[in-house]
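Field: COMPLEX_INPUT
Field: COMPONENT_COUNT = two
Field: RESIDUE_TOTAL = 438
Field: MODE = joint
Values follow.
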Amino acid sequence: MKFESSFPIWDKLNTDQQARILGSLASHRVKKGAVIHNGSMDCTGLLLVKSGQLRVYILSEEGREITLYRLFELDMCLFSASCMLRSIQFDVTIAAEKDTEFWVVPTEVYKSILEESAPAANYTNELMASRFSDVMWLMEQIMWKSLDRRVAAFLLEEASIEGTDQLKITHETIASHLGSHREVITRMLRYFQNEGMVRLSRGAIEIADADKLEELRDS
Amino acid sequence: MKFESSFPIWDKLNTDQQARILGSLASHRVKKGAVIHNGSMDCTGLLLVKSGQLRVYILSEEGREITLYRLFELDMCLFSASCMLRSIQFDVTIAAEKDTEFWVVPTEVYKSILEESAPAANYTNELMASRFSDVMWLMEQIMWKSLDRRVAAFLLEEASIEGTDQLKITHETIASHLGSHREVITRMLRYFQNEGMVRLSRGAIEIADADKLEELRDS
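Field: COMPLEX_OUTPUT
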């Protein structure tokens, strides 16, 4: 897989801009669990996922975390270059959820291209608007959807991403994804089990009745 | 006050772009309470506040609302032109909190300028990043700050905006700004009164001890 065919606006850049990107592009490979960007501590650059899966989340002072969104193959991440935009005043952490390969365009190179290229700047606008929409959706979930529906939605999404109904995931992990507490999630999962929607065992959750979970999620 | 001196990147547009804006620019005057943009129902255009005060908020299906941010003199609003960016997938409502005058650049005109002008596209990026940061801050407030601190922060902000310690505001209004319920806010305000931080009367809240409220807010 080549960067040229993976970067959506490649053909709209001039040959000088293309050369600057190819001359500075770096390719990385990280193991599952690696933290590749950590708040304001670094400004890695614009990131494009080649393969694998990244999770973007925020951390409270007390160490609680909430997942903002995930990045899959060919997704781009702007916030690893957040120092590029002086108006971005918040910090995210990016970690690999699977072994992941990605490209990085250095912040200074991308910034200089943004300043001269309307297509690049507009593409960046669309990227940001799309992430903004993700976060607005999440905020509405937190504010207005009750937790039972959010847990149901989370389990169904995990099953779809992993391609299995046997989820190897702890209650603690679900709690931190949803900005909740382990005890609360455990109670909810037991309720789900009593309703026949899941089967719980040590370190695993099996989806027993996806239709019923979907019904709850969409209720 | 002229649009030319109020629009930050005016000098970076060419004369043709400037003429297209001036030829299509509309000026509006609305009364306090007017709703000037309502979700996906309309796509007014890029909005620049001349005087007054606007509130941007989201509404749940059940009619609960939460304030995302406010717009004051010379602030610009991108989301009244959200149809311009196809990646914006959420709806906001914009209402006047005071009698307000504002300019509108029609969506199609601004969009055509964005497509050819890197400075305009980058300026739009900064605007969006700044609003995104507001919303991230708010989400962190909701997730991680306890309500007492949020109510204290809200009262202090109101007093600062209105330039008075005598706030004419109902508990219902505070509740909807903070995505909470009237009963909860009333209880919290009574607690504040018992602590000597505010004095409550019919339809009004007086800030009695701003230092103590600030201390709570920053705790």
